[in-house]
Specification:
Elements (H helix, E strand, L loop, with lengths): L2 H15 L2 H16 L2 H5 L2 E3 L11 H9 L3 E7 L7 E5 L6 E3 L5 E3 L14 E4 L3 E2 L5 E2 L5 H5 L13 E5 L20 E3 L4 E2 L11
């Protein structure tokens, strides 16, 4: 078993072990911390997600976007490109359907789908993270492939990539791969982590 697989199982178990009340309280604190951030409040076009399983609930964040003249986008699976995402505007009256994983998403059209380069920030779900901004997701690689352009940028770091997680999902160091896209910040119920300048080298 690889270290990433082991960590994914360990942190999924830790997340599921939280009571519903604990997750709800943590999600409220995460939302408050995120919405108090100047960099997030300045953003107007924001990619979000609808929680699946025990992921951090984003309903309060989405409600904030709807009531503060910001545009909320949800990720949508790209049918013609394996393991990639479009982002589609999400409004209170948007009709949703379930995708192949049972996750709700809006219907994309040629006119409403957006590339992540057009967004100011993207909220990223995760299973595990470390202080260096490395994350472990569900294993599909959707966000890493979609956001691959961020790996080569040293300026104009758009969109801002923000992971949402419970504190129990933190680990010391995640073995990283060349294709991993690091997060700019991770917000938990306890604090906001920002990657250090001394991040460990990636495996080649």
């Amino acid at each position: 078993m690889s270290e990433q697989v082991r960590l994914r199982r360990e942190k999924q178990t830790a997340r599921r072990a939280m009571t519903a009340e604990a997750r709800a309280e943590a999600a409220e604190r995460i939302a408050h911390r995120l919405l108090s951030s100047d960099s997030f409040r300045r953003a107007t076009h924001i990619g979000c997600y609808l929680p699946w399983g025990a992921e951090v609930d984003t309903s309060a964040i989405i409600e904030y976007l709807w009531t503060h003249n910001k545009t909320c986008y949800l990720p949508v699976l790209v049918p013609s490109h394996q393991n990639r995402l479009w982002f589609v505007p999400f409004y209170p009256d948007t009709v949703l359907k379930t995708n192949q994983y049972g996750i709700y998403e809006p219907k994309p059209t040629k006119r409403n789908r957006a590339l992540p380069q057009k967004l100011d920030a993207v909220l990223v779900p995760l299973v595990a993270f470390d202080r260096h901004g490395t994350r472990i997701g569900m294993g599909g690689g959707y966000y890493d492939r979609t956001l691959a352009f961020r790996r080569t940028r040293t300026t104009w770091l758009r969109p801002l990539l923000i992971g949402l997680a419970y504190e129990c999902q933190k680990t010391a160091v995640i073995p990283s791969n060349p294709w991993d896209v690091r997060l700019d910040a991770i917000v938990t119920e306890r604090t906001t982590y920002r990657p250090s300048s001394s991040s460990p080298k990636r495996r080649t």
